[in-house]
Amino acid sequence: MPNDISYLFNTSLIYEKLNQPRRAEATVDQYMSLGESDVDSDHLSHAVQAYTAIGHIKDAQNAFRRLVSKDPAKARMLTLDDEIRKVIGVSGA
Q: By the 8 A CB rule, do 8 and 27 touch?
């Protein structure tokens, strides 16, 4: 699998739609390991959601922290989801 972030991001979305969360997570892991400047707020937002879906709390929290520093507004939007809010430790939207 190439290390092109767009390819990896889209592949993770496809795995998610195919109800293959573990494969989606493996692909998210790949793009999250790329350089900080390559990973944008959409990638980080999806990573938080993907990690939350499979119960990888530490990974979800780390992705959320990165998202807060890149795009605080998008991070706030994620806190509207009860499950994400619980995983990242935020009380109320």
A: yes
